[in-house]
User: Which sequence fits this backbone?
């Protein structure tokens, strides 16, 4: 059987081990792994990395962004079986449903990547001699939070939309079901996403949200 993945934080293009809490198999309450807890220092590092990543990613053309994103999706499709096994181990859903969720997450990201090529502006009618033009541009660093019940497709919705729009992102995924987010991020890492554009943290949800959301960068 495919092994449960190592669980690590992902900050500034680097994987980082840290102490944390056990992830349990609901079928027999065996320990699958340890999900790391991000410190405030880790969160500050993720914020700084995301700010730097945004400078690069926001200036990358929509076509190039889509190329990297779709490469990551192709890797996830290749790895669907190992991702499905990990999801079933930590969550208990039937393996067939795990496969379908992963494939659905891939479809969501693919759709977002395609839409990222069509972030059209518009020309608004105005007075003679004047032209009103609207441009759609990336807004900045995104802080995203995903629940335990759809551990791959929920992160996929958030990551796909942010990256396709040209934003960088810090995602705080579920501590109960972390493997989907780790494997999703690993696919983007292996696809060559620039460092800092995507960052992954875990920890106490209230503490992380209370710290990240008020930040000026977010």
Assistant:
């Amino acid at each position: 059987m495919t092994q449960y993945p190592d669980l690590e934080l992902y900050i500034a293009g680097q994987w980082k081990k840290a102490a944390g809490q056990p992830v349990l198999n609901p079928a027999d309450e065996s320990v699958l792994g340890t999900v790391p807890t991000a410190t405030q220092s880790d969160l500050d590092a993720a914020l700084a990395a995301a700010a730097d990543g945004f400078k690069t990613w926001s200036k990358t053309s929509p076509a190039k962004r889509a190329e990297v994103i779709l490469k990551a999706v192709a890797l996830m499709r290749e790895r669907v079986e190992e991702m499905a096994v990990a999801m079933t181990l930590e969550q208990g859903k039937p393996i067939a449903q795990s496969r379908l969720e992963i494939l659905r997450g891939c479809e969501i990201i693919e759709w977002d990547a395609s839409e990222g090529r069509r972030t059209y502006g518009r020309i608004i009618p105005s007075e003679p001699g004047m032209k009103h033009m609207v441009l759609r541009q990336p807004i900045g660093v995104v802080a995203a939070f995903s629940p335990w019940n759809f551990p791959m497709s929920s992160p996929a919705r958030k990551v796909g939309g942010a990256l396709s729009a040209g934003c960088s992102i810090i995602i705080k995924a579920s501590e109960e079901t972390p493997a989907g987010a780790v494997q999703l991020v690993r696919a983007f890492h292996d696809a060559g996403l620039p460092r800092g554009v995507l960052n992954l943290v875990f920890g106490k949800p209230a503490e992380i949200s209370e710290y990240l959301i008020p930040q000026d960068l977010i």
About this structure: The chain has one domain: 9-212. Strands lie at 9-11, 14-16, 20-24, 31-36, 122-124, 132-134, 141-145, 168-172, 198-201. The CA atoms of residues 104 and 115 lie 17 Å apart. The chain is about 45% helix and 15% strand.
